Amino acid sequence: MSLKKITSLSMLLSMLVMTYTGIILFISPHGRIANWTNWELLGLSKEQYAQLHSTFMVIFILGATLHVYYNFKPITSYLKNKSKKFVFFTKDMLVASILFVLFIFGTLYGISPFSNFLNFGDDFKSSWEKDYGTAPYFHAELSSIKSFSKKLSYDLEKVEEILNSYNIKFKTEQTLSFVAKTNGVSPNFIYKLLQKNLQKAGNHDIPLTGLGKKTIKEVASTLNLKSEEFIVKLRAIGLDAKEEDKFRKVAEENDLGPIDVLKKLGFKK
Question: Global pTM?
């Protein structure tokens, strides 16, 4: 066996796995949606894809280190001019450095086309929300059944009665996530079950989480309002906005958070 060959082949395989898991993580739903709905692709959850990406990253880094060791002379030859003298900033190194800096600044400062690429990924992640829905509040799946019921103003005795009628095994001190996993369902399934049986007609919960990343038009739709109507309401409290503006940006330009704006408009959880 050759350690050099093993290194190259390991790097190749780890690169393939990291490329695949990287693409999946780029387009997968946001964590709040993935955790709330038990999102999976090909039998693996988002957390498992992240774990695979991290562990294979270790193999890739070790392989890359050995690769540099085994190919140190060829690599250093790239830093020599025609006279075979060592020059760090050769033309090739200069181009590589410019690309390196361009990707850093382009990403951090939201320069196009980097911003377009990242916005595409963010929009794709957010699109899952239409099919799966979101939790009524941040990390609701980590609340106990008792706490969850209290926060949503559900009668605990009725909650217990409903869960028992559907043969859901639970204890009120257990988290919604644990109960869902134990019964082979998602936290969202239990929430919808309770919502269907307890929610009064005409009294709809508004999912406030994740609204900051939506456009004004999308937020209006979530609030069951027309875009024009929502924009008029925003103007009434001193906020100027257009349909395609991001809700978070509109709020932050006025030193407010998305939740603060909704509260000013009279919306509650």
Answer: 0.65
